[in-house]
Amino acid sequence: MVLTGDESGEIKALKALQEYLAIKFEMKDLGQLKYFLGIKVARSKIGVFLSERKYVLDLLTKIKMLACKPAKTLIEMNHKLGVF
Fold first, then answer.
1. Distance between CA atoms of 53 and 45, rounded to whole angstroms?
2. pLDDT of residue 60
């Protein structure tokens, strides 16, 4: 289970939830999230950044396509997602 928040009120509520769940279930606090399902998680003052670079490199290595040449894609590079 991944619990996250960025405001002091949220952090306190998440800590209380974590303590409650630890009573009901066997849990272990692994500290700050670094990798989740092959996705690297990096934090900065600006926000949280997710990178699939390692996952993709591992996948390309597994299927023996690491040396293939890249192709043009219709997805805009470095597109920033907005909040609605």
1. 22
2. 92
